[in-house]
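--- STAGE predict ---
source: upstream dedup step, 1 unique chain passed
mode: sequence only
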Amino acid sequence: MDRRQKAWAIIVLVPAVVSTAIFVYGFVSWTGLASLTDWQQVQRVRGILPPGSFVGLENYEKIFSNARFWPNDIYNNAVFTLVFVTGCLLLGLLLAILIDQQIRGESIFRAIFLLPMAISFIVTGTIWAWILNPTNGLNVLIAGTVFDDLRRFLLEAGLLQPLWKVLDDLRINVLRPGLTADPRSVIGAIAIAAIWQMSGFVMALYLAGLRGVSDELREAARMDGATESRIYRHIILPLMRPITASAIVLLGYTSLKMFDLVFVLTKGGPALSSDLPSIFMFETTFRGQLFAQGAAVATVMFLVSAVLIVPYIRSQLRTGRA
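--- STAGE serialize ---
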């Protein structure tokens, strides 16, 4: 690369580097500084530094002494992350394996499974709030149809009871906020909507990985007497570990910053049974006007995300150098 090409490369990259430094790392640093002050209510920001006096880690002590944030919100987020990530991985892998069988109309099924990714979590929350509404939702939509008869048959046979119980918990406990609810059932039910939207993304990742496995490797395993289940268990699935790691990081990051879906669907209720740190941050900052404490919650969420993402980025860089 000559000097002219290097100069053009620098000219092209400088705007992106500068904008990233200002609008990403600059604002993250500004939020971190704001979390160390006593900034509350609407105050005029003069200069670059956030308003308010320096108070150190006092805001962090306040949010961790708040029972809503710790342990309620942290526990809810942990349950949601576990159910959401596990469900997306299992469903996405299953869909990818099914599509990888060279089925007829493969492109149509791919489009259908990827369609939920084209909409936002706000739309997803609105759709599922209607579907699960006990008054005019899914029950009314399928009433008197063959699907209603099939549902009744599966319920009586005990085949649909676990899933339908979760949906009933969501209807009764979430959409009627005057009642109390078990956080595990509510968060688990909300995760169904998130899994519906993101499982197609995981399917695309796994499908790309499955298509990268050579047919010669599969044929060699078959010639050695391996069954299809053994081929997937001992050959193909181990090859999918890098994709699984990438999916876990991306889904985990999504679950940690989840706000719009839960806010539209439940608003954190009932009785904070579906409350998350992101909702607590929103209400603390914009409704309570405790901007410094809201910045502290945002900083904690950023640090937790960094703990998940930074090791993954370092491992990818090491792999690339190797």
